[in-house]
């Protein structure tokens, strides 16, 4: 649970093993970034983008209209999003959607569920000699999206949802809700597209793993942008990639596709120039979406030909 802001001096004394002070509003979160006005440590959830550096929410509220800082309609995150009262709302909604679909799959037959067969098939018929187009190859592009919310095994579902709950809130707080949604969806589509391009024809591919790896890549980009210690996230990324390529029956294409797209989109969001931020964000998302369309189009032409 978030803690009530204390006095400026208390968090200054709270330090982690690396000597970083704790955020003055969330003392359990070490931070190397300080408010440019009061010099108190602030975590990504508390950062408000200013003309120079970042400010804490208290300084933004206290300085608006006083002549000491530009008046702002609302505080902004590092990526330019509006700071929300509940920085976990979209993460909770995504968890709820995944859980609802998972329950529906179990209720309609588990691995034999008609939901799975209607929503996750990507290429040709399982017997390529019949050359019968199914799924995305037949024009059902919506499967690239719906496959992101399908899980068959409890362990698969639980691992992805635990990862979403761990990675989602900090990114949602740092990017803002709309940008977080765009990042999640584009990363998931990137994973589906690469699976469609490289996997064997007719091979089903499902799960939120592509989107989750996109969040992992985005977390690495955000930490690098904030000059945080990169070792923990790089170790985590290395372990996950090792499992991706060594564990059987894992669609590594979805993991790699989601990771690349998520990192690329996050890079455009957190490094965009302040005066052209909205334009750069829109262009970044558009390019990522067009890349997904291009990959799917090329693969479909290969299958049809």
From TrEMBL:
Residue ranges of the TM segments: 93-112, 149-168, 180-199, 205-223, 230-248, 254-272, 279-298
Topological type in the membrane: Multi-pass membrane protein
EC number: 3.4.21.105
Chief localization: membrane
GO molecular function, one term: serine-type endopeptidase activity
Ranges of residues in domain Peptidase S54 rhomboid: 139-270
UniProt xrefs under SUPFAM superfamilies: Rhomboid-like
Region (Disordered): 1-26
Top-rank taxon: Bacteria
GO biological process, one term: proteolysis
A GO term from the CC aspect: membrane
Compartments where found: Membrane
Keywords: Hydrolase, Membrane, Protease, Transmembrane, Transmembrane helix
EC class (word): hydrolase
Family classification: Belongs to the peptidase S54 family.
The name this protein goes by in its record: Rhomboid family intramembrane serine protease
Organism of origin: Streptomyces platensis
